[in-house]
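Running this now, will post back.
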Amino acid sequence: MKKLLRKRGIWKLFILLGCVAIVYFSFQILSIRVLSTHHRKERESAHHNTEVDLETDSKLPEKKKYLLDQNIHARSGKLPHEPSDSKKLRFTPKVNRASKLRQVSQKVPIGKFQARVEEPVEDPQVDVEQIKAKWSLHWTRGVQDIHQSLYLPDREGLFTCLKTKKKLPASQINDDYCDCPDSSDEPGTSACPNGRFYCRFQLPGSPPQSIPSSRVNDGICDCCDTSDEWANVTLDNDLKLPDSKTYAVYQAPCHNHCDLLLKTKGAQDKVQALGARLKHKYLQAAGQLGKERETYGANGVFYLLSQGCANVVMSGYKYNICPFKKITQQHGSEPTVNLGEKPSWIQVHSGIYQLLMSDGAGFPCPNGLKRSTVITFQCGLQDQVTSVQENERCKYEVIYLTPAAC
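Update: finished.
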């Protein structure tokens, strides 16, 4: 035996047999693992994709486990000996594919506060028109009528800034935070600089009425329909005027006075009709003009006003107003101050006539600014200056009634 073991050939045979055994057992272990993994995947597939019919009784969990252990295939759809009163249970979770617009509609800011839609939406098909109708009043607050369609969100629930074309969630419209670089996302709040708020009620046949957005919810009723004071903000007692009627200012809480405005508009329409008859002499006076006729408005209708001056005294100041020539101011015995002598039209169409008289006296205006005056011509039955105000430092406004503006 010892001689047999000493032979090298026998050792080589043992080593070869050992290697074969190792390879054989490794292959068996690998096969077992592969089959186990495949079996597990089949069970998972059956768990997620199968409609299994089970009897509805008190032992439902045990039956479910038993049936799955028996590896019932998903595509069979039935169990052997299926009872007639069975009930189907679906194990595949349902995916709700409601669009982003529905999610946005469930949380929409109203002014400075957040409001959540209480009723859940069950239909996975989004009714965009219903959502738009529900929130259009909030989205379009302060928007001019011709631009309201631009503030309704698209199918993705997004709003596009009017000038910069930046896209925002619709929930950021009128949320009292300025998101658009062009300030277009806050037409109904005072969050953005240089914004304009358009009153919801507009006088028929009149230019669009708007106010700077900084006046929204400031406690002063600028719109006759109270739409600019939707947050019901009231002034502090030390800021309230003692008698609003004396100063022609409406203070919050606001009340709708559009009916009074309509009556005033009706009276103005009558004045407009009578003034249109008197306008003929102003056009006739401009008939002698040549190329310079358009300097005085359409067909030179304001030329006759340039041939005279209106003298008025207001708030202790004496004004001498000569349209297209010069405007001066004097207080007591103080020297006369030039308020503007270089005429140029700001607007002279669509019933709005505004003449700028610039290049007035500079001292003591800030930053080298020179005084200037804007004359707004309005329809009246006679030539008459009704108002002179200095709304900004060294900038004046004059209301001038005349049949030439009818």
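Confidence is low (pLDDT under 50) at residues 48-126. More later if anyone needs it.
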